[in-house]
Amino acid sequence: MAADSPKTYDLDDLLAVMARLRDPDTGCPWDVKQSFATIAPYTIEEAYEVADAIAREDFDGLKDELGDLLLQVVYHAEMASEQSRFAFADVVDAITSKMIRRHPHVFEDPSRREEFMTSDLWDRIKAEEKAERGEDSTSQSVLSGVPAGMPGLTRAVKLQKRAAKVGFDWPDLGPVMAKVDEELGELRHAIAANAASQAVEEEFGDLLFVLANVARHLGLDPEAALRGANRKFVRRFEHIEAALAEQGRRPRESSLEEMDDLWDAAKKAERKE
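-> structure tokens emitted (273 positions)
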């Protein structure tokens, strides 16, 4: 390597940087005062930014976002190490062991590939792991272990999948769509009856839950679908802003009817592309 070539950092360097940042005497005051609880929101945020970069096919950005997400893992591991709970190496060992253990058709017996794809082999292995840890899965609800802090639509699909595994599921999409109509009617009724906001919120939640079920039956990720709708809204609204800016105006200086026409123009333009 040429003498003037920039240094290429590796994982050991990143671990050393985090340890330095967390040094109580010479580290960064902000980093030193952080805890698992205060860093957790950043961990979630970085995961979303990874997903966003993938959705936008921004692979240069993805490299940076994956680095930010890796930093979160290193951050939590450093704090755990400081408390003598576990170290980063333990995290690596645990996930590597888990992946080998849960893929016997890859690492042990290739003849089990079909079994893995057509059976509940993954879930059986998970159950065996819990038994080895002394956890009695038979005394737990089938819904246990779905994190309450997950995004609502994602958690809804997870809960529905768990229930479906024990037969609590509609056989096809038809009854699910009928349930959408039913829940929408109940929401309309609650609104028309001037029901308390809590009742309206409950009916709205029921509608979202069944829409998540529609997504599951269609094999869609509702969070990804909503992110796509958000991007579409941003794109079309920015078209409205740009069209008005050409006239020296802003949206607040326009009428709803005019903005609706510009929105429709944006839709037509997208369909022609």
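The mean pLDDT is 91.
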